[in-house]
Amino acid sequence: MALLVQKFGGTSVADADRIRAVAEQVARRRRQGDQIVLVVSAMGKETDDLLRIAAEVAGEPSGREMDMLVTAGERKAVALVAMAIEGFGVPAQSFTGSQAGFLTDGTHRNARILEVGAERIRAAIDSGSVPVVAGAQGVSAEKDVTFLGRGGSDTTAVALAEALGADACELYTDVSGVFTTDPRVVSTARRMHSITFDEMLEMAAAGCPKPAMRSVEFAHRHGVRLHVRSAFTWEPGTWVVEEGPDMEAALIRSVVADLSEAKVTVAGVPDRPGVAAQLFRDLATAEVNVDMIVQNVSAAGVTDISFTVPHTDLPTAVSVSEKRIAASGATAVLSDDSIAKVSVIGAGMKSNPGVAATMFEVLARNEINIEMISTSAIRISCVIAEEAADRAVTVLHEAFELDRTTF
Amino acid sequence: MALLVQKFGGTSVADADRIRAVAEQVARRRRQGDQIVLVVSAMGKETDDLLRIAAEVAGEPSGREMDMLVTAGERKAVALVAMAIEGFGVPAQSFTGSQAGFLTDGTHRNARILEVGAERIRAAIDSGSVPVVAGAQGVSAEKDVTFLGRGGSDTTAVALAEALGADACELYTDVSGVFTTDPRVVSTARRMHSITFDEMLEMAAAGCPKPAMRSVEFAHRHGVRLHVRSAFTWEPGTWVVEEGPDMEAALIRSVVADLSEAKVTVAGVPDRPGVAAQLFRDLATAEVNVDMIVQNVSAAGVTDISFTVPHTDLPTAVSVSEKRIAASGATAVLSDDSIAKVSVIGAGMKSNPGVAATMFEVLARNEINIEMISTSAIRISCVIAEEAADRAVTVLHEAFELDRTTF
User: Per the domain annotation, does B204 fall within a domain?
Assistant: First the structure.
């Protein structure tokens, strides 16, 4: 008999049919002898709808009121899921974040969990009931409702799994696991049976949207076993695990493309200490989210600095940079909104220095120009033209034999 | 400087424009020096929408889960109203029923308030903030979310006004007060400046839908001054008050028609003790909500029993009655779905026995047949044919000179 925390995202509970499918699965798992705790997000696009009406009602609502508002979505979802489970003859009880014992700090919109006092959830399990916990919410020491932010339901699930000493935390999504690359782009993409925490974090950082990075970090830190799987096909998905001895067999485990960023180049920057620092201090003050930074080798006392930012931050980044060049004596600010960041990720590359060379060769052979490069211990990312993204992913996936490897 | 509890129903906060109108009014009243506490219902038809999806998800959801579900509607509304008030530059804070200190019993769907520990609301007022409290909700001793039932927001407002020692409780609706009769039916209907608690209760019992009877009873018991008024025109409405010395000047203060009921007649009932008792015990067991009961004078050892029930209860009432006639030897069960109950109400009739006679004469003169009669100390109700309802209301309103009286 296993104790499992299962998290269902918005698309998994988007309507009455989906909610009944989740409830039926719970009933089945219970018959098989497992103890189940659910964590549920707001239905479908409900959170977006709530944000839209808030914008209609008030220009800049306070964090406290936004949190009271958006957490109503999860509250509705947990009640509906609990009654659906009862409809299958299994006792169930819904809990708000506060009722489930999630004590957080008072940082509204993006609260941090301080403590999970899971006594009520434990008591519900012991009484034979299925607890259904509202994701991404808690209560502050001031007894105000708090929201953990987008993707916070993953964090709720992982924290609850840790507090309960659960055997595993299953994150149900609309895909059936973690793939070697996007199966919509490359038909030979393969689902991985397992992936390391570090690889999962690099994939999240590289633009792979699920699961939320914060929850993976938390699971990594507390040794919670994560299982990313589908609420549509219900087949076994991908386990996220500590690195094992056999993990380095494959050099590369996935290829990820991220189209969410734009590139800014500040050209002709005087090559003296502090100029770059001032630029990035200005960008930070303006809350521009800078990702990659590349500074070209200096020639003749001037240098070019390029960096990437989310599309939405591009206008601010450009205007901040233009103000700065006036002060620093740089010559121009150029921007490119049509780029892609293509990354290859794998714990195996740590002990194999040839991966970067292979990646660059493969791109060059396919006449894909590399504009920027950045690396970590287990990831290499290249910025290329947006229109070459699908082609780059396809040729890299094949070159690293991901279509022929069993993970 | 007055301390006012203002309650806004669903139509008053149905969309972003309405919410901003409520917020603007709060800002205005604050500028005039009043302290304001708001109680808010779920937006528009949201509660109905939640009930509909619950029915899709599960056949007979438990009370606990239904309460968790429906209270999400008020939670969303209070957050939006609070942020709209902040948008007008006035500090505001939303509170769930639990946060506002509403301790209730554990009767889900229809919980009773046990205690209002309004310290947090008092502290918010003292800090210069406008508390916005979710209507119709509380928390049980088991820390479960509870719902006070339909119309429960009125009760929340009155109970909060009592707990805070507020100067008045303003119940905002979509009409501008309590009228001598339905202004849609009789164009000469007049808005009353004040009405007694007893009259208000009789009007509610006679089918006038607002405010909720339970809240009027509570206000009466605890001496809370009620003001029923419009959130659309904002003009002064009708005060609900203790009976004053001048209250008996007018015999009749209002004429109300109720089209929500149907009539059942059990004919040829043997006239012996206990037969009627058995019938109404059966109806109570089947949860049929019986309103008026009339038993005709017995002739030749048999009698007819007529009673009214809500339209929705009619099929059950007929089948229960048919089972009972088989056992009791009655001859037939007749039902009529096209009736109206017309009532005249006024504290003044207590000391004037001629009111009933006048009512019957007026109806007879207008060839409106009376099928059933029931009376209380300050109300006389007649069941007539549904198609005669508007005509009956018009001629009674005129006969009792309500179109010429100032209240």
Answer: no
